[in-house]
Each structure stands twice: as C-alpha cells, then as structure tokens.
C-alpha cells in the first residue's frame, strides 16, 4: 500500500548481526580438551599428614578393644582422588564433547587413555590408575620429573579428536574454522617459583616445536591457545615453596596460572572450584527435601542437597539480580555462590508439557551422601520435582524442575514470566474452526501408527540407505494419499467393513495374505450391496431422504477405487487389489441398467439362494461388526464434541441423521433374522427381570416403550403418536 | 517479541518542516504519521504483538503499557505533549525496566526509537553518556546492552545529510554496537514529508513486522499457516557455523511422539501456528449467498467452515496426548502440540529445538527416528504399554552407579562400616560382604591407597578374634580369607593387585561330610 516509494530513499544499514544465539559456547573452546598431568615421582609417595580414622567402634562393642591406628593418604592418593572427582563431575555434566587425556609422569610419561569418546569415563581411568599404582619411594629422584608428562600433554593436545575430525570433514574447505585449544591441568609438587617458571617455559617451547610439526601433518593440529593450570600440592604443616599467581599471558599461545594448595580436602576444594570455572558450572542447593529418618521411620527431617550444572540454568537470576538472596552461600563446596531452590512435593501423575527454556545435566557435589543419593534415586525412579525460587520481593515462583530421562538427571529451567502468547484467538475461531465433524479419532489412529521409534545407526551405510526419519515421512505420505478430513466427506472410512483393506493398502508392500484380506473385504462389500445394507452416508446439503441406496453404493465404490488407485504404484499386489475392486464394483447407472435388464431374474434367484445358504455365524458376525461401527462412531462424536467445545453457536453435526438411520431402521428381514449378541443378552436380561415382578400396565400396553398418559384427554392425538413410533431415544 | 516504541517528546521535535505546500508540519507530526502507519499495519497483520509506548525528554513516561489494543496506542500518540530536552540514557533505562518487569530477561524484544536526531547537549546528552560510560560503577551502568535479547530500530525524523553534519549517526551506531542484539538505523532521504516518512516506516515494517507464512505438511495433508511470533535466525556456534540459520517455509511433519516420551524438552522459542486462508475463494463447502458489501467477513466465515488440517491435527494431538515432530531445516527440528491457556482456549503451538542432530539426548539422533512398522517388534508393545523412550546413555552417570568417593573421611568410614556390618552377619551376608569388600579394594588400588588395604585386613583379622562362640564356623574362614587377600593386594603384586580381579568367597562346606574341606 504505502510502501511503493522505496526506491527514492536510502537508509543507513548497520552491520551488526540480527540474530539470537542458541548456544553461547563454542564447541572447540579450551574445555574441549583437558590434559591432566599428575606427578608420579617418589616425593608424591609422602603422606599428606591428614589422618583418617577408619576403625569407628559401634556402640554395642566390648570396651576392651583398642581401635586401629588411623590411616593417612599419600600426596599421590590425594591428587588422584581429587582429579577423579573433577572427572566425575565433568563426565556427569558433559558425557560427550568434553574430553580428558590423563597422563602420569615419573621417569617417563604414561598416557592412561586417548581422546576417543569410548575412553571417556571414570571406570577406564580408575582401572588404568590401578595398573600404575602408587609412586615408588625408592626410585631415583634424579630420573623423575613432571616435565615428561607436560611434554606428552602438549603432544597430546596436538592430536586431533574425533569431534574435530568430524567437524573438519563436514566443513570441507572451511575446515580452518575448527580451532584447537586446550587446557593442561598439572598436579605436582614444585620446588620453587623458579622451578614453576622453568616448567612454563618448557611447555611454551614444546608448543612451538609441536606446532611446527603439526603444520605439516594431517593428523595433528596446531595449538592455537593453551591454558596451563599448575597446581602445587604439599603436605599439611609444611610451608609452601611456591606462590599463587593468577592467570597471566605468557605468549599469545600460552597463558598460565599457579595454585599452591595443601593436599587432602584443601586440594579437593580447589579442584571443585576449578572444574566449575573451567566448564562454566554453577551450584544450586535444593532445600527442604523431606526424608524419612533411618531410625525413626515415622518422622521426616528436611535436608539440603547441592548440585552442580551449567551456569546457564541461573541466567534469569543473574540478569534479574535475584542471584543473591540473603544467606545463600554454600557451606562446604568452597565456592561463594549457590542458588537455593525449594523442593515442592510432586504431584502424582503429571504428563504435562512444561514450557522449558533449557535443560542441563546435573552432578551432586557430595555424590555418596545419604541426602544426595536419596534425591537422585527418587528422580531416577521417574519422578519429577518442581523447584520454587524464593524472590527478593518475598513472592515465590516455580522456576525449575528436576527430572530424569533415561538414567540422566536434568535441571529444567521453566519459564516463569508472562507469556507473549497469552490470550491467543482460539483455534475454533480461525480457519476451519467452524467445522465440527473432523475425523479426530481416525487421525489419532493414524498418529499412533506413525509414532516414531529410534533405530541404531547402520555403520558405513551413510548415504546408501534412506534415513529412518525419511522413511517415516514416506510412510506418512502413503498413509495420507487419500484421507478426507471430515466424516461427512467420506463413506468408506465410516464403514467398519472397509477397515481391513484401508489398513493394508497403505503398506509399502503387501503379502499374499494381505491381498487375500483385501479381496475378502471387497467381496464382503459386494455382499452388503446385494443385500442392500444401509451405508453411513452423509446427507449434507441434501434435502429429504438423501441419495438412493444404489447411488450411495456407487459413491462408496468410487471412493474405494480412489483410495486403492492412489496406491497402485506400490507393486503388483497393490494392482491386484485394484483389479479386484474394479471387477467387483457396481457400475455407473447406464451400464447398470443394461445389466439389470439382463440379469434381473438371475439376480433374484441368486439372492434368495444366498440368503438361505449363508451360514448363520457369518451373518451375525457382520451384524456385530456393524454394531461396533456404530458404537465407535458415536464415541468419536463424543470425543469431538469434547474437543471443540468453545464454539457454542456451531451447528449440530450434520452427519447425525444418516447414522441414526443405520441404528434405528434395520431392514425388517434383519430383525427377524439372526440376532446380535447384544440383542440376545438384552432379551435374556429382560426375561429374567420380568419374572421377578409384575409388569406395569403401562409398559405392557406401550408402543415402542412409550405409553400415552392421560389418554382420555388426547384421544385423537394418541393415535398419531403410535404411528409415529420414533420417540424412543 | 514485544515491541517498545520509544518516542522523543523533546522540544526539538516541534521544529517545523520546510514544505513547498501550504500545510505546515512539525517533525513530531511526521513521527506520529509514521507510527500510525506502523500501528495500522500491526493491527491488521501482526495483531498478537504486544506494544508499549514510552515518551521521553529529560524524563520518561510510560504512556501505554504493553497492549494489543492499537486504538489506545494511537490515541495516546495523538495526545502527546511537548516537553524539554532529550536525555536518551534515562529513557533506555526506562525501557529496560518495563520490559524486565513485564517479560523477564529471557524474552526477546524490539525497541523502536523515534527521534529527530538531536540527542541533547551537555550532561544527559547521548554524547556525554557514551563518553563517560567506561568510568562508572556497577550501580550506574549504561542500560545497553539490555539484559534481554533486543533489536534496536532507530527511526530518525531527519535526513542523512542533516545528521552527518554532527556526530549523531556515529553516536547512534555506537548504540547499536553496544546493544549487540542487532538492529538498524533508518533515516529519511530527500525532503522531510509524509511520503518519505511513510517510506521509512515501510522499510521498518518489511524488516521487522512482516508475518511469517509457511506451509505445514503431513504427508499429503497440508495447511497454509502463519507462525507467530516470527521465528528468528539462530546461530549455532559462532566459530564453526557463524552463518545464522532460518527455518524453512515448508514445515514437514516427520512423525508423532507421546507427550510423556518427549517429556518437557528444552526449547529455543514457542510460536502459535495459525491456519490462514491464502485463497479467499472458498471451495464447494460454501452454500452461496455471500453479499458483496460483507465480502470480507463472509469470506472469513467460509474459511471457518471449510475443513483445515491444522484444526484436525490440533484436535487429535489434544485427544491423544501426543506431539508431532516437525522438521524445520537440515538437522533442525521442532514439535507441534496443543496448548491450552487458563481460559481453556486451546491452540496449535510449535516449539523450536536447538538446531542440532541430537537436540534431546533421550530421543537420540532425530534422523534415526523411523516408523514403528520398520521395527521387528512393535516397540510400543502389542497392548501399547511399552515405549522405546527414553534412550539410555552408553555410560551411567556417577549418581547411578555407586561410585566410590573418599574425599571426605565420612565417605571412607561409611564404606568400611558397610564391610564390617556384613562381616558380623556372615555367612548369611557372604555375597554382600564380598561385594562391598571388592568395591573398597578396587578404589584403594586405583587411588594407590595400599595402606587402607592393610588397615582393613587388620580390622577383619581382629573381627575374627572377636567372634562369639556361637558364630558359624564359616564366618572365621571367610574373614581370614578376605584379610589375607587384601594383604596380598596391598603388596602391589600384579597377581593379586589386578584391578579387574575380584576376591571370591572361600569355598567351604559344612553341611555334609562328603566333600573335602579346603
């Protein structure tokens, strides 16, 4: 309209991007590769000088027993268990894409695993560590050095990972976009600050050398950036010989930081902080978790459990300034911050679809503590827990949800702010909203048949075989080739008798049995036509009685032929079904007329003969089937009326009439013929009941279960009611 | 994406525009004319957008809170008064506050700033704000970037030449850079008149307020739809794949999944999927009798009466409690589902997953999801009681596999006590005793904690001596056997200290005499 004058004007375009980030992290950041280098030299065998009491006497033991002496961990044991804890948290939260290469250094280096994904779990590492064993205190200290390990770590960082390789091959000519960064976490006992500087220089030199090598290799990548985290650890009670130093850029390719920490729990706390920094983690404390006491099963106390997860789960708090409610500090993680969320006792059976803006894997800080394992087991058993956020203002809001999926626990972030989509026009107000006879149940059935299921990836078959999801789309295409959306547009899909064929014909390929079933279905229809069985035909847009029965059958056959014809390309067997339909179906009127004239007599004979010969069982079966069809359609109608209930002025469903005619006006010979199970049963019940009491005079004299009251008042009209006979519903 | 219109109501907006014609306009009139056009467009083509109107000079005022009532917005615009000087920083802070109050900090917004480009002088001017930005404390931070993702559109009621004579454009561009969420500066070209302001706002409409139309397909069934709000382009990895991705206008359903199986997945954004009648001609369903005067409304009515796939899909999704998985692009998927609001009105909604071959770990790779008929056995079970979801990860997480952590002394003490407790119930608890013993043994070997192995061996030996007379003879055998094995392991001898080796119970038999004792 008014936008026709564009060409005469110029506007200033800003170059900045107009998009929204999905993930703020780069896949190949520092955290993609972590090389752990742990000192295995003789001095690491020294005790950390923190004793652990392990002989805890229980109350009912005799007093004469002297407890065993406490044990003490070596520097090595402390380093190993803290690094394992680092890996445990890392693998819990990032089972893929964040890789660890574990290296041990003494007189040489020992690489305990590879960058390969299958090597990335704590079990593998524990097994490899057991093979290494504790450091040998009698080894010659002169031969041993952490340097062997550091050099190996740099070499290892140059090695390409599966993920880097895959990304590079996908990007082809833009492979240079895949960067190679990494981090070296080194646990050692250094001698002095000068020693530390020497280690840093050595790492830098090795990077430069290795980068030269990597430049000429396909299987190696140059290190663009490396972060060295040196952790000097020493026994309790000793003075440190190395000073802490924050991160500093040594060269564009290498930055380094030094932490000087006492072994034992101090080291554990330090590594817990580092794993959070290195992998952008944050802490949430779930508070008020009710748990049964072991001793007193009737009482329950409230516990807190601290969880780690990606920081993004707190983004809303960080931005809104709600991050620091009073008194929310972690007591034992050593970190300053944890967000406290309150447990909300879960409702029982909620299969709800929450509006969830993020889901992040969690790892309990204290994985084996009783409160932690109570919580995780509860979640692993399939329950979800909503979490409430206490706000500054004192108001409360459900902000998160804990839920497990396939043995992994996720912290879901729920949207707790006003929705911009509130109060939309209802679907019944829009296009197609006034239509009331959608085939909701039938489409639901189609959806069930087109549910998805995971298939394992066929190794080496990439490209040659169709992806399962494409096969799913193909199946949907087949299932919808002929699919009228509303009940009044179809006859065949309202007929129980057509179901076997309709279900089979959409298959990609048919078996001989399938063809047989289809043919039987067609013969059955022919039979119905011969007997002039009523069809559930819609009378939309017609006045009076609607089309004649033979016209109804003709349109039914047309529809069936259309359905089958859409699948004729499916193969020879599909074609045979079509042949069967075209051979058996009733003809257009002229042709029919011609035939009728010739066959009238024959036909009559045939009919009476068949009626006589047909086995009783089959007939009553047809009858029950028909009844089922009617019942089911009624159910359908019920479902629909539930679905679209917000259009009170919508017209009555138009298809009601023809169906009722099916139900109500069975051809006279039918009611006399073989009876359905339902009728048999009803009759039986009625007879039994009638024996128990004397029947009301009114009921005995009733017509169609209806008796005119005050007959003397309305003598003339009474007759009409009787004749009408359509009242009993 | 809600919109905030930030209207400059400073005195400079009342400057008259030189016109060749008879009528005299102020810049303010031009601005109002442009916004009127925007509001009219939104009322007809984008009516679900929430818009707020903020006027500012040295102070700011929320004239109309977020609404879909464009008449109210229009009215407020025409009643706008003139105030003093321009102070943009305070106004931007105002925008930041009202958006966060209403929508939180995750909801993306669009800010339309309408100004004449004279951004004040001295304190409170944009130039001053920008120059002092870096020297401020946390409490006085410049409002940009907004805490929420925001696009900033700056509509200058001035032409480029006019603005180039000062540093206005430079300052405005700096605003866009600061905002980081993107946006654009629009200026008027040629004489300042109604035509050129229309043209400028026309460009804004094209850029930011054109409805997103698509075709929703499920095999051969399809429907034309509007997706509201417009799905925004998404960048997956700024390094590896820096080009933003947009969703296809052909949305193809792959198949269906139960709500319980998809289980509240995380989504990037949510959108209404509204069926639209592209073709105003209605098929044979219309029973005729449309009057020419009411062509529009009767066309709408007919559209309502002709069957639409969206309505069918919505109805069945709702009844069956399922979602439809829909492909949005290569390796990008979303889900369609029925969403009911508090008033029991329900709608077809689409949520977008993160673009990735495997956005939901519990479903596995999306491309590997196929039809159940391809499976050897129906994964949902013949009686529909099973489900192939969720997929189990290859490795169990630490909390699901009984890991050993001894960082706190209590962890170690608990593990030792478990062994001891079972030791006192030998031989009944033989299996658990050895299970716990082996668990401790493995961890001690991995941690190089041989001292603990020795300690526990001593502990078991002592337990053996403390056994009451009534104890089963097997208890003593098992305790001394276990102690001996632990001691052997603590030597590091590869024969006994192998990680995968397990200490097995000693084979004893006190029930009959027909077998030799070990």
Shape of chain A: elongated
Mean pLDDT of chain A: 79
Q: How many strands in all of chain B?
A: 17
Distance between the termini of chain A: 59 Å
User: Hey, roughly how much beta strand do the residues of chain A contain?
Assistant: 15-25%
Which range best describes the helical content of chain B: under 10%, 10-25%, 25-40%, 40-55%, 55-70% or over 70%?
25-40%
CA radius of gyration of chain B is 36 Å
The low-confidence runs of chain A, each spanning 5 or more residues with pLDDT under 50, are 1-23, 325-335, 600-621, 636-673, 716-729
Subcellular location (chain A): Cytoplasm; Nucleus
Organism (chain A): Aldrovandia affinis
Family (chain A): Belongs to the Integrator subunit 13 family.
InterPro entries (chain A): Cell_cycle_regulator_Mat89Bb
Structure description:
The complex is a heterodimer of chains A (729) and B (518). Chain A has helices at 75-93, 122-132, 147-158, 162-171, 193-215, 265-278, 315-320, 370-380, 440-449, 468-479, 499-505, 512-530, 549-565, 572-584, 589-613, 616-643, 656-664, 668-672, 677-692, 697-700, 715-724; strands at residues 20-21, 33-39, 47-52, 71-74, 99-105, 109-111, 181-188, 225-234, 245-251, 254-262, 281-292, 300-310, 339-344, 356-361, 363-364, 385-390, 396-405, 408-414, 452-454. With 729 residues, chain A is α/β, with parallel strands linked by helices. In chain A, the strands form 3 sheets. An 8-stranded mixed sheet of chain A has the order 14-18-17-16-13-11-12-15. Chain A is elongated, with a radius of gyration of 40 Å. Mean pLDDT of chain A is 79; it is low at 1-23, 325-335, 600-621, 636-673 and 716-729. Chain B is α/β, with parallel strands linked by helices and 518 residues long. In chain B, 34% of the residues lie in helices and 21% in strands. Chain B has helices spanning 27-45, 70-78, 88-103, 126-132, 160-164, 168-179, 194-208, 259-262, 295-305, 309-320, 409-423, 430-446, 450-465, 473-489, and strands at 3-8, 16-17, 25-26, 51-56, 60-67, 109-115, 150-159, 183-188, 212-218, 221-228, 234-235, 250-258, 269-275, 322-329, 332-340, 346-352, 369-371. The termini of chain B are far apart. At the A-B interface, strand 1, strand 4, helix 1, helix 2 and helix 7 of A face helix 3, helix 6, strand 8, helix 7 and strand 10 of B. Strand 1 of chain A pairs parallel with strand 11 (234-235) of chain B, so a sheet runs across the interface.
